[in-house]
Input
Amino acid sequence: MAEAWQGSAAAAAWSRGYHPMADVVQKPESGWRSPADERAYATKNFVLRGNLPTTATVHGTVDWKSGTTIARPLTGAQKAYESFAINRSDGPRLTVTGARLGRTTIVTSRGTATVPAWLFTLEGYDTPLKRVAVAPSELPRSPIEPAREGSAGGLRRVARLTGTAVDGRSVTVRATHGACDDGPLVKVLETDESVVLYASVAGARSGGPCTAEMIEQDVKVELRKPLGGRILLDALTGRPVP
Output
């Protein structure tokens, strides 16, 4: 896979795009004021009390420190809100009272960029909850065909990237496993141009009932050197990790 991507048209397309490598929802800088609010955020339990702006702007600009820029479609405030406020249950909730369009910084595949963001006002907080407002570039089509799940010694899919260390020396990804194994394993192959993640599971547990379910779990993967501009690839799908 690393060889297929090296010097490919897909790799060139990746290098020209805007691909966030960190969570596009950013917590208030002041931090959570209580465990209840932290739980509300973790469970995506929000309520809207106020009006969200409707903007006619259709594109926003992504700016890198190198001076490179790219225009990307702008997500409306309502759609941005609905991307993180997906729970309407009883229990701890965070209250959004409004939003305005501003900017924030985020780690991308091409380094840190400054991007448009919706700044959501939270009841009881002096600093906003930020949600990146520009859509990422489409993932390029892989130059290699996907593998069959379970092949090559139990190969599994890496569901998505959930975080990148500030120094780039590790990534955290969401890997899958079943109810009757000892959890996910993620191995790594590093080259100068790519980081290929090979996900599988630890040995199956013996005895007792086993339910048929797919469980997702965060796994931290240490790297020999910072990720930098290298492409993070999933060995099963042959594509960049979303």
The mean pLDDT is 88. The first helix runs from residue 2 to 5.
